[in-house]
Amino acid sequence: MKKIVQRLAAAVLSGCTIWSMAAGAFAASPAASIGSTAYPTLNAAIAAAKNGETIVLQSDIDNAKETYYVGVGKGAAYFGSTAKSFTIDLNKHTIRAGAESQTGLLIAVNSQAGACAITLKNGTIDSTRGTGMEIRDDNPATPTTVTLDNVTVKSADDTGIQCVSSKLEIQSATVTGQGNAIYAEDSSIHIRAGSFTANGSTANSAIASYTCVDKETLQLDLSTVSDSGAMCTRPADWKQKLTEKVEMYFFEDVPETAYYYPSVLWAVQNGVTVGMSTTEFAPQKSCTRAQMATFLWNQAGQPKPTITKSPFTDVKAGSWYYEAVLWAYETRVTVGTSATTFTPNQTCSRAQIATFLWNAAGQPSPATTENPFTDVKTGSWYYKAVLWMAENDLAAGTGKETFSPMNTCKRCDIVTFLYRAVQL
């Protein structure tokens, strides 16, 4: 098998030098701090950090401030000869490696070190040339563990993250590379949420993990990659059919005890909707008319509309909801807010959502005329839709005798209505 790992010089691990200014001897703004103590470089802060401490970036980091030498390359780096665990809060800043660098951030642990655990959170690691981030441990018996939480890693011309003889725990990350987003050798990877994309001309697969069979042979072994904590993985069969993009979702704002948890899980797993991010569903946020049309279109399998020209002046070709709205219009799921407008960004009321669903079901007549809601008047444009919803237990009221038809409908309620409707 072709070996595609881009190894750094072995000499780096056996003997390394970190060049940095002394703490306090700088005129420009500090690069990082630990508590109230400021440091001119990230490496100076790492050297000073005690076990369990948090380093907070105070500015963007680039190879003008941080220097290590690997051949002709230089950039931000951490080399460890003793076991130490700490957190780097990127604090919405970027660790950036320019044209002379070989990696954006290097975490390399020497053979004499014990187990290290390093957490990176809340920021970006960016390399215009070379690997975005590299993690390597020269002693596989005590692998270094690196955890990413709300981190973006990207490389303009190489692998996003390269991991050798280490452990990678991804709570939440967006990783973009060329050949691979993540490339691993003799490492274990666990991903809970994130988006991983190989988008270059040399794109191989989003995630590639190899086991070294002997000194020269690598064997693809995706059993070393786990997504067991994710609510949903797309595509679900990416390990069988390697793909250039993998997405994993875990919504921190959707607890398993919530009444809408099964509905959100169903909606994401079946491609009805995704979250606002890989970790946020925003269940209490409102939904627009364009979003609702798209939910129903996704649920229907994204059928191609037969009409090719929008009847609405406010629905432009190329918009993300264009085909969904055209499909909704021609199937009479909705007819717009007027003859020429759809008003895609208008938030949906509970009455509108009921009517969308009723139309999508073919406008079935309610079996009863008994109205349980005092605020849903006979003859109102949503009357039959609400009665149909109520008698089929698709939607409860907001009170014992109220439906609150003009209230804004929340995302958690919309997916719940949809979930119940498919079970009729």
Write a structural description:
This protein has 424 residues and is α/β, with parallel strands linked by helices. The chain folds into two domains: 11-249; 282-421, no CATH class. It has helices at 11-14, 42-48, 261-269, 289-299, 322-330, 350-360, 383-391, 411-421; strands spanning 32-34, 37-39, 54-57, 61-62, 76-80, 86-89, 94-97, 103-109, 117-127, 131-137, 145-155, 161-164, 167-177, 180-185, 188-191, 194-198, 205-212, 218-220, 225-226, 232-234, 245-249. The strands form two sheets. Strands 1, 2, 3, 4, 6, 7, 9, 11, 13, 15, 16, 19, 20 and 21 form a 14-stranded mixed sheet that branches. Strands 5-8-10-12-14-17-18 form a seven-stranded mixed sheet. Helix 3 (261-269) packs across helix 8 and helix 4 crosses helix 5 (322-330). Mean pLDDT is 88; it is low at 1-27.
Q: What Rg, in angstroms, do the CA atoms define?
A: 27 Å
Percent range of helical residues:
10-25%
- Number of H/I helices: 8
Number of strands: 21
Specify the biggest β-sheet: 14 strands, mixed
Q: What gross morphology would you assign?
A: elongated
Task: Determine the mean pLDDT.
Answer: 88
> Would you identify the regions where 5 or more consecutive residues have pLDDT less than 50?
1-27
* The number of domains: 2
Query: What class would the helix/strand composition place it in?
Result: alpha/beta
User: How much β-strand is present in the residues?
Assistant: 25-35%
